Amino acid sequence: MKDIKQLLFKFKNSKNYNIDDFFVSDSNFFAYNLVLNWPNWGKNILNVYGEKFSGKTHLSDIFQKKFSAYKIDAKNLDANFLEKFKTHQNLIIDNFNENINEENMYSLINLVDRDNKFILINSITQINQLSFRLKDLSSRLNNCIFAKINIPDDELIYAILIKNFSDKQLKINKKYIEYIIKNIDRSYEKIYEFIHKIDQTSLKRKKPIDLKTIKEELENNE
Fold first, then answer.
1. In this structure, what are the phi and psi dihedrals at residue 82, rounded to the nearest 5 degrees?
2. Which of 31, 49, 126, 208 is the most buried if burial means most Cβ atoms within 10 Å?
3. Distance (Å, rounded) from C-alpha 100 to C-alpha 126?
4. pLDDT tens digit sequence for 53-112
């Protein structure tokens, strides 16, 4: 596990989605490596999927800045957008789910294939596991590269805690952080909920966080 001082230095006052702020571990290395190796994906569509708060938006923002990608929410896939996208090489679709306009998405894939464009799709579920009325769309969504962001490992949890505690100017004993890692639910959403609760408790009590408080908040966070 990395030295706590190194992590504090790396993440100090870091709130933007910059590439240096993205902490790479075994949980997200495959997705991170693929995103940064554009256009050498092997296929024209890359689906990065994983639970909420797992870093998909951060990765897509890195891709957007590095490769000048156009970004859109899946709910805004309309005919007007298809015309706009013709002038771009790369596209990011956020929040992809079963409620998209299927005809427009199918037309978009045809445009990508015809003009050798690229799409990075963010979703919670692997997109070829979603149910669509349009069978041709389901078939085309099988022809993608899939990169899952897995549940956080110890090293990634450590980095998330250190970064957020530093951002919030919370001083937590290193031994307590190690205790949190061993006992917290391995869910990105639960980790961020816990950090928020600790922050709120600290603001209310106006004193350092002790182990008793950490245990209480971990129990409440289950």
1. -55, -35
2. 31
3. 15
4. 999 999 999 999 999 999 999 999 988 888 888 889 999 999 999 999 999 999 999 999
| Terminal-to-terminal C-alpha distance of the chain | 25
What are the φ/ψ torsions at residue 21 (nearest 5 degrees)? -90, -10
Distance separating alpha carbons of residues 170 and 213, to the nearest angstrom? 14
Q: Distance (Å, rounded) from C-alpha 60 to C-alpha 35? A: 8
The structure tokens listed for 53 are 């708060």
The whole-angstrom separation of Cα 130 and Cα 37 is 26
Instruction: Give the span between the Cα atoms of 113 and 123, in whole angstroms.
Output: 21
Residue type, 65: K
CA atoms within 13 A on the CB side of 14: 20
DSSP 152: P
Whole-angstrom Cα distance, residue 187 to residue 80? 38
d(CA 8, CA 188): 20
Q: What is the pLDDT of residues 11-68, one digit of tens each?
A: 333 445 567 789 999 999 999 999 999 999 999 999 999 999 999 999 999 999 999 9
pTM for the whole structure: 0.87
